[in-house]
C-alpha cells in the first residue's frame, strides 16, 4: 500500500476579474460554472473555488447567489467535489460584508484572505468571533496568505487564540504583487523559513503555474490551478479551458508517482 500523500487539486476557474475578453471559456454564468465543475471534477479536481458574478459580469458577494450556485453544482456533481465559495473583497467589499455573506451562505468550505478579514488590530475581535462561528459549524477554513509577513501574522493570531482552534489549511499565493504577475517555483521559499505543521497549498500567477504547484506537491503541499491565476499551458500555449489545466496537472502528478486526492481525503485534512 502506497504511503505517498495524495495531492488536493483545486480549480479556480474565473476569479473576480477575468472576462470573456480574456478568454472565451471563462465561466461566468451559472450553466457555465456547472459545466466547468463537471469537467474539472472528471479531470481530477477535488475542490471547486467558486466566484459568482453579477448581471454585468462583475464580482459579487451575495449569499443567495452563492447558495444557488452551490446547489446547482452539487446537483450535477454530487459530494465528490467540494464547493469552496470565495470571500474576496476585490476592492468592492469590506470585512463585515465579507463575513456576513459567508455566514449567510453557510458553505462546506470557504477561503479567507487574512489581510482582508483582519486588516488591522481593530478587526481582530470581530474576526475571532466570526471564525469561532464557522468552527462551530465545522466549516472547512482555508486561509489565503500572500507573503511571509502574512504567515507570521497568522501564526501570531493563532497563538493568541484569535483565529480559531480547529485545523485550517493555508494557501500561499505566488506572484500576485510581482511585476506582470509572474511567478517562479523559488517564490515559495520565503514561506518555508520555519516548519509548517498544517496542510498547505499553492496557487501561482502566470504561465509557470504548473511548475509552482508541482513544487508544492513535492514539498508535501497541495495545488490550485485555473483561469483565476493563469490561462496558459506549461508549453506556453493558451489553455482551451480550465479542464485542460486540471488534466495537465494530474498528468504531471502521475509522472511523479502522485495522484489527486478525493473530496473525502481533502475533508480529512480538516480533522
Short description:
The chain has 271 residues and is an alpha/beta fold. Helix content is 37%, strand content 15%. Helix 2 crosses helix 3 (95-105).
Topology (SSEs and partners):
Blueprint: E1 9-11, H1 30-43, E2 47-50, E3 52-53, E4 59-60, H2 63-77, E5 82-85, H3 95-105, E6 109-113, H4 114-117, H5 124-136, E7 140-145, H6 148-159, E8 169-174, E9 200-204, H7 209-218, E10 222-225, H8 242-255, H9 263-268
Parallel strand pairs: 1-2, 1-10, 2-5, 6-7, 7-8, 8-9, 9-10
Antiparallel strand pairs: 3-4
Helix pairs in contact: 1-2, 1-8, 2-3, 3-5
Q: Which labels suit this protein?
A:
two-stranded antiparallel ribbon, TIM Barrel, globular, 9 helices, alpha/beta, eight-stranded parallel sheet, 271 residues
Based on CA atoms alone, the radius of gyration comes out at: 17 Å
Strand content: 15-25%
Number of helices: 9
Tell me about the largest β-sheet: 8 strands, parallel
**Overall structural domain count:** 1
Tally of strands: 10
What sequence of helices (H) and strands (E) makes up the elements?
EHEEEHEHEHHEHEEHEHH
Could you tell me the CATH topology label.
TIM Barrel
CATH C-level label: Alpha Beta
Placed side by side, the strands forming the largest sheet appear as 5-2-1-10-9-8-7-6
What is the straight-line distance between the termini?
23 Å
Helix content: 25-40%
Quaternary organization: single chain
**CATH superfamily (homologous) name:** Aldolase class I
Low-pLDDT regions: none
Shape: globular
> What CATH architecture label applies?
Alpha-Beta Barrel
Computed structural class: alpha/beta
Amino acid at each position: 500500500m502506497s504511503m505517498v500523500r495524495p495531492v488536493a487539486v483545486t480549480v479556480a476557474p474565473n476569479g473576480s476579474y477575468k472576462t470573456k475578453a480574456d478568454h472565451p471559456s471563462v465561466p461566468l454564468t451559472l450553466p457555465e460554472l456547472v459545466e466547468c465543475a463537471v469537467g474539472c471534477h472528471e479531470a481530477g479536481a477535488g475542490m471547486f473555488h467558486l466566484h459568482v458574478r453579477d448581471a454585468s459580469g462583475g464580482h459579487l458577494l451575495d449569499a443567495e447567489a452563492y447558495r444557488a450556485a452551490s446547489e446547482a453544482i452539487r446537483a450535477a456533481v454530487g459530494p465528490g467535489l467540494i464547493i469552496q465559495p470565495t470571500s474576496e473583497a476585490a476592492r468592492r467589499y469590506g470585512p463585515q460584508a465579507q463575513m456576513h455573506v459567508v455566514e449567510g451562505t453557510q458553505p462546506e468550505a470557504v477561503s479567507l484572505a487574512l489581510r482582508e478579514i483582519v486588516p488591522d488590530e481593530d478587526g481582530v475581535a470581530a474576526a475571532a468571533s466570526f471564525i469561532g462561528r464557522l468552527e462551530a459549524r465545522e466549516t472547512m477554513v482555508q486561509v489565503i496568505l500572500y507573503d511571509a509577513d502574512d504567515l507570521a501574522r497568522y501564526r501570531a493570531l493563532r497563538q493568541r487564540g484569535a483565529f480559531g482552534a480547529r485545523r485550517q489549511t493555508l494557501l500561499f499565493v505566488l506572484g500576485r504583487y510581482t511585476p506582470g504577475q509572474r511567478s517562479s517555483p523559488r517564490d515559495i521559499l520565503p514561506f518555508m523559513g520555519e516548519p509548517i505543521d498544517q496542510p498547505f497549498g499553492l496557487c501561482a500567477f502566470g504561465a509557470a503555474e504548473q511548475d509552482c504547484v508541482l513544487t508544492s506537491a513535492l514539498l508535501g503541499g497541495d495545488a490550485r490551478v485555473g483561469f483565476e491565476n493563469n490561462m496558459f499551458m506549461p508549453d506556453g500555449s493558451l489553455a482551451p479551458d480550465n479542464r485542460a489545466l486540471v488534466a495537465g496537472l494530474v498528468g504531471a502528478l502521475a509522472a511523479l508517482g502522485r495522484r489527486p486526492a478525493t473530496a473525502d481525503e481533502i475533508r480529512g485534512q480538516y480533522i
